[in-house]
Design brief:
This protein has a 13-stranded antiparallel sheet. Strand 7 and strand 8 form a beta hairpin. By secondary structure, the chain is mainly beta. It has one domain: YmcC-like fold, CATH 2.40.360. It is built from 2 helices and 13 strands; from the N terminus they run H-E-E-E-E-H-E-E-E-E-E-E-E-E-E. The radius of gyration is 18 Å and the shape is globular. Helices cover 5% and strands 60% of the residues.
Length: 231
């Protein structure tokens, strides 16, 4: 399933994809809504894709994805990042509430701590701050894990509200900054940002990610070029 369609986050850090979402990015949009996105990999490979919401079922949505004159149909059942962690054996080990800044406003948020059931080491703990008032529902996600041979960490957090243009129209976007580090035999880092807007089907307006592993560097940019939002 193309990451450009649903942007689901896998649970292993090396398989994380962004954005990390707590809320269905196509919720509230009706069939016929679509986005056109361009994916640019290190200024060498450019691919344009049109993603259209075809139908809404009880527990899923059906999309058509047109890429390089080839169209495929996909049925997607959204799962939040928290739900995927729970399915992978994580359990809530703590919960609290706080008020967090969101641009010029302040919003209520829930802070959840999740760890592998039965693990008392204190490592491998996810700390998620979520809010229904933020596009995508996630304010911050932090994870660290350390042992004698490896050290890994993830930080994905809301940074600011910025305006980006799509087809000449400005959209207010929440910008999230990412830093992901893995240290094993070789060091691998993922850094970048993504911008989400509740006015855009699928939420994603833009993302820029740079992956560095040894001497290899890959930068991938996804940009929304065109949008049709039906509600």
């Amino acid at each position: 399933m193309p990451a450009i369609l649903v942007f689901m986050a896998a649970l292993a850090t090396q398989d994380l994809s962004y954005p990390i979402l707590e809320k269905d990015p196509w919720a509230g949009f009706m069939p016929g809504s679509f986005v056109v996105r361009e994916t640019n990999v290190t200024n060498r490979i450019r691919t344009e894709s049109t993603i259209t919401l075809k139908s809404i079922e009880v527990n899923s949505k059906t999309f058509t994805v047109l890429t390089r004159n080839e169209e495929e149909e996909q049925s997607v059942e959204f799962a939040s990042f928290t739900a995927m962690l729970v399915a992978d054996g994580f359990r809530a080990s703590g919960k609290s509430t706080r008020v967090v800044p969101f641009g010029p406003a302040k919003v209520k948020a829930l802070v959840r701590e999740l760890s592998i059931e039965g693990d008392t080491s204190g490592t491998g703990l996810w700390k998620l701050t979520v809010s229904d008032e933020i596009p995508g529902g996630l304010y911050e996600a932090v994870w660290t894990s350390d042992d004698e041979k490896t050290s890994s960490g993830v930080s994905c957090a809301f940074k600011t509200v910025e305006k980006l243009k799509v087809q000449g129209k400005e959209f207010s976007c929440a910008r999230f900054d990412i830093k992901e580090t893995q240290r094993a035999k070789s060091k691998k880092t993922t850094e970048g940002s993504y911008w989400l807007s509740a006015q855009i089907p699928g939420l994603l307006v833009k993302s820029v990610l740079k992956v560095t592993e040894g001497k290899d560097v890959t930068e991938t940019t996804i940009q929304t070029l065109k949008v049709e939002a039906k509600k």
